[in-house]
């Protein structure tokens, strides 16, 4: 069975001091940023922070700006060099490509934090629905991060980390759906 839901609109729950700083930063960023991803929704103050604001493709530039603030000594490779990108034009693909493909340390911090949040939130869904037939991950960011998620323990460690329910979580298969596009009739 597929359960229809709007889980991305549920509240994001910070789990550490770092997350609380990200939470406060995100609310300010959403109200004021001129980044291309942020402008897809109205720039206005918000009183709550939904999961999708920190765990979907448009969240990557937000987390990138937060990491710049948290780690000011790290080079801003995307914004300097041969083909600099304005912070307002940076999108998730730039960050993932620079982090995973070019070893950009700042972008890797974004990928790591995003993957942590993704694992926690996917695990929360698993606890709520107990889908023993599997959790199926889809979407552009999922496709871009599949190899990283498979090779790195961040996603699964956070997915399983549900205290006394960890045994239940280990019984839930997690799969990535890679769509094949058929051209023609």
List keywords for this structure.
185 residues, mainly alpha, two-stranded parallel ribbon, 7 helices, 47% helix, 3% strand
In short:
By secondary structure, the chain is mainly alpha-helical. Helices cover 47% and strands 3% of the residues.
Describe this structure in words.
By secondary structure, the protein is mainly α. 47% of the residues lie in helices and 3% in strands. The radius of gyration is 17 Å and the shape is globular.
What is the global morphology? globular
Secondary-structure element series: HHHHEHHHE
Structural class per helix/strand content? mainly alpha
User: Fraction of residues in helices?
Assistant: 40-55%
* Quantity of strands, as a count: 2
Give the integer mean of the pLDDT values.
94
Rg measurement, Å: 17 Å
Largest sheet: 2 strands, parallel
Strand content: under 5%
Q: Looking across the biggest beta sheet, what order are the strands in? A: 1-2
Number of helices: 7
Provide the fold topology.
Blueprint: H1 17-32, H2 59-70, H3 92-102, H4 105-129, E1 135-137, H5 140-151, H6 154-160, H7 166-169, E2 174-176
């Amino acid at each position: 069975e597929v359960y229809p839901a709007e889980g991305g609109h549920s509240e994001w729950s910070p789990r550490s001091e770092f997350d609380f700083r990200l939470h406060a930063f995100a609310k300010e960023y959403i109200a004021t940023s001129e980044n291309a991803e942020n402008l897809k929704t109205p720039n206005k103050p918000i009183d709550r922070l939904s999961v999708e604001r920190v765990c979907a493709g448009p969240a990557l530039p937000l987390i990138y700006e937060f990491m710049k603030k948290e780690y000011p000594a790290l080079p801003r490779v995307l914004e300097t060099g041969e083909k600099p990108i304005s912070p307002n034009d940076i999108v998730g693909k730039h960050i993932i490509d620079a982090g995973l493909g070019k070893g950009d340390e700042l972008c890797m911090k974004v990928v790591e934090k995003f993957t942590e949040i993704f694992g926690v939130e996917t695990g929360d869904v698993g606890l709520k629905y107990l889908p023993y037939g599997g959790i199926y991950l889809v979407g552009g960011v999922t496709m871009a991060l599949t190899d990283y998620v498979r090779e790195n323990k961040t996603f699964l460690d956070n997915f399983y980390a549900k205290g006394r329910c960890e045994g239940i979580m280990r019984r839930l298969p997690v799969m990535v759906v890679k769509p094949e596009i058929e051209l023609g009739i």
